[in-house]
Amino acid sequence: MSWALVIPFNRNWLALEGYAFPAFQARLEAERVTSYLDFAGRGDDPALKARAARDIGPVIPTLPFSLEMNVGVVPALADLLDIPSRFLLHAEQRFDYPSVLQCGDRVTVESCLRRVSWKPKKQVCFFEKETQFFVARRLAVNSLSVYAVRARQNRNPAGSVSLE
């Protein structure tokens, strides 16, 4: 979809700061790691597979995000914003690995909207979602995803924002 898609700005989005998404659990299966390595053309290296199984972060740093994708993080955010998901742009992603994440780990995933910011001159609303991945209550991964929605402010004759 084109970034030119523009929807009316909804000032209620600003009140979503702090919203906690439902937590979920998932197991990091070796097949998932192998699939990622195969896709990247690196699946034939047994030493790399073994390293990834022991410590996923240095080999496939974005793998935890796939757990969120499996449970529909983008449609969930779009539903929360009450917009079609095609209007969401995934603008940025960062990962920190304070500890090891391994194949076989049962991961508890907790996410919340840390910050919502409206840039009226640029006609963009940014949504920063922090996600923490815990293994046995130990923080293994912290990620920050930034999503953007191109929006315009419509004003009615009284000067208030239209929430079309």
Structural notes for this entry:
With 164 residues, the protein is of the alpha+beta class. It has 5 helices and 6 strands. It has helices at residues 30-39, 46-54, 56-59, 63-70, 73-81, and strands at 7-8, 24-27, 88-96, 106-119, 124-135, 138-152. Strands 1, 2, 3, 4, 5 and 6 form a 6-stranded mixed sheet that branches. Strand 4 and strand 5 (124-135) form a beta hairpin. It is elongated and about 60 Å long. The model is unreliable at 157-164 (pLDDT under 50).
Head-to-tail CA distance between termini: 22 Å
Overall mean confidence score, pLDDT: 89
Order of helices and strands: EEHHHHHEEEE
Largest sheet: 6 strands, mixed
**Percent in helix:** 10-25%
Question: What is the chains' assembly state?
Answer: single chain
Question: Count of DSSP helices?
Answer: 5
Give unreliable regions as ranges: 157-164
Going by helix content, strand content and strand pairing, the class is alpha+beta
Radius of gyration: 19 Å
> Can you count the beta strands?
6
How much strand? 25-35%
Gross geometry: elongated
The gist of it:
This protein has helices at 30-39, 46-54, 56-59, 63-70, 73-81; strands spanning 7-8, 24-27, 88-96, 106-119, 124-135, 138-152.
